[in-house]
Amino acid sequence: PPSPAPAAGPSVLPLRDGTGLELWANVGTVRESLAAAAAGAHGIGLARTEILFLDRPDAPAEAEQAERIAALLAPFRGRPVVVRALDAGADKPIPFLALDPEDNPALGVRGLRALLRRPAFFRTHLRAILRAGGAHDLRIMLPMVTVAEEMRAARGILADACREAGTPIPPLGAMIEVPAAALRIEDLVAETDFFSIGTNDLTQYVMAAERGRQDFAAFADAAHPAVIDLCAHVVRHANGRSVSVCGEAAGDPRAARLLVAAGIRRLSMAATRLGAIRAAFAA
Ligand code: PEP
Ligand code: MG
């Protein structure tokens, strides 16, 4: 039988220090988006777009991309939504991008690196996101950012896409998943409107432990002090830019407590985790 829909609840939890903890949702399908809205998420903190592209021999046309992304966002009409540009490569292979085979794809051409190698596709994809986000408080986020030059290049392509789509330039965010980006977060501030830490990948790279490998669970632990300290560093050096966490750690009470202690006040998680996090931070 289908699991019961998560119960609704507050989207901001009051903390003892007088601040609030915002609860956002990660969604990759319309079903997840409906569940997240029903569960009372503040907004979409991570809309994963990969599902549109998996198992496709060719890139879907702009209109189809726009239509499917709009369907993903529809339950959050008028709400803040963060759409992540296609995160191709490594654990998310996308055949039509025709990237070269690699011995070590997790350290290869993935995320923003892949998008910048396919600028025509990237621009079309951004136009589709811009069109899909018209009824929302749209923000766009880029995966696997390493250095400021990549953000600058992406900004240029976004500006072109906005001109072509006839839309204003939305806030542009960077996922922080690469240790170099986290350690030098101040270098990204000038080019980046907000940050979201992807603890799934950041943990993989900090701990040198492949994500998804069950026998590495003890290493690949986002609650390890090395990962938490790096998250605290990001918060301290982000120069007032908002910093959220959208990895699975955000929905795990043990890791979430450590992230909040590290200064994080915005967590984005699967709708099914909202109840556990509300319970963990109940006053
Ligand atoms: C992450 O890496 O933590 C993340 C949220 O992105 P994904 O799991 O889609 O790589
Ligand atoms: Mg990631």
From TrEMBL:
It comes from the Bacteria. Belongs to the PEP-utilizing enzyme family. This is Phosphoenolpyruvate-protein phosphotransferase ptsP. The gene is ptsP.
